[in-house]
């Protein structure tokens, strides 16, 4: 990622858990047990901060995004951009494909209203959230436990795709996301999942989110992700020729 930034004239900054310092105490308290949700909001606050400090354009790229070709992966000429998500998953014995947008890749120019509108919408949703206390019998007493009700993608791809369907954002079509089913086939032989992914992809990906969170959920393991990075770095055509 550092090389891509250098090639295209951007300063590079890597952010870890210090990103969460951007959140207000209220919203950090509501999201700290769900860091994916917390990060989805914190990145918006950080990007707004950088623009307020004088940046002309800011780009967010998740740490688990692999850029296949730093030179040719260039930003579209648009004031606000989001990546394309083509999600392939099993539904019984069949495959289902969903076409969305994602926030693993985003770019904004100073003065554009999309970033503050997106951040406002995300904060409003989170402020309206209240944990549900569910009763659990324990002898003669009832024990209350907090039941999380925030889906991991609530203010990420879910919110963005709803807004996109209503408004129509500019999309960087070659900033893609690899579902675990597609990743597994790329490690072996392209099959039905790769075909479904290609059929719904407008262009060949030049950067892909490898869904590192899938390793945490068990859909892939860390070795799978490492092998996929090595495979695509050595043979990017395994992916780019699918579409």
Record the SSE blueprint.
Blueprint: H1 2-7, H2 25-31, H3 35-52, E1 57-61, E2 65-67, E3 80-91, E4 94-109, H4 114-128, E5 132-138, E6 141-147, H5 154-167, E7 170-172, E8 175-177, H6 180-187, H7 192-200, E9 207-209, H8 213-217, H9 222-234, H10 237-240
Parallel strand pairs: 3-7, 8-9
Antiparallel strand pairs: 1-4, 2-9, 3-4, 5-6
Helix pairs in contact: 3-4, 6-9
Short descriptors:
alpha/beta
Describe the structure.
With 243 residues, the chain is of the alpha/beta class. The chain has helices at 2-7, 25-31, 35-52, 114-128, 154-167, 180-187, 192-200, 213-217, 222-234, 237-240; strands at 57-61, 65-67, 80-91, 94-109, 132-138, 141-147, 170-172, 175-177, 207-209. Strand 3 and strand 4 form a beta hairpin. The longest helix is centred in the first third of the chain and has 18 residues, at 35-52. The mean pLDDT is 89.
């Amino acid at each position: 990622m550092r090389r891509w930034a250098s090639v295209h004239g951007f300063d590079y900054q890597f952010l870890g858990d210090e990103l969460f310092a951007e959140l207000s105490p209220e919203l950090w308290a509501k999201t700290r047990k769900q860091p994916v949700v917390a990060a989805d909001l914190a990145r918006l606050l950080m990007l707004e901060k950088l623009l307020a400090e004088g940046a002309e354009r800011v780009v967010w790229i998740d740490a688990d995004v692999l850029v296949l070709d730093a030179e040719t992966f260039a930003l579209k000429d648009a004031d606000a951009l989001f990546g394309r998500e083509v999600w392939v998953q099993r539904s019984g014995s069949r495959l289902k494909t969903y076409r969305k947008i994602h926030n693993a890749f985003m770019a904004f120019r100073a003065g554009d209203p999309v970033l503050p509108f997106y951040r406002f919408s995300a904060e409003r949703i989170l402020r309206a959230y209240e944990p549900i206390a569910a009763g659990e019998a324990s002898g003669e007493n009832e024990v209350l436990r907090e039941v999380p009700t925030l889906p991991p993608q609530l203010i990420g791809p879910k919110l963005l795709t709803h807004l996109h369907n209503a408004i129509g954002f500019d999309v960087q079509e070659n900033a893609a996301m690899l579902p675990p089913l597609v990743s597994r086939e790329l490690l072996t032989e392209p099959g039905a999942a790769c075909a479904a992914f290609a059929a719904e992809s407008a262009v060949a990906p030049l950067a892909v989110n490898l869904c590192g969170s899938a390793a945490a959920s068990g859909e892939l393991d860390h070795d799978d992700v490492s092998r996929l990075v090595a495979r695509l770095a050595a043979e990017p055509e395994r992916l780019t020729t699918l579409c």
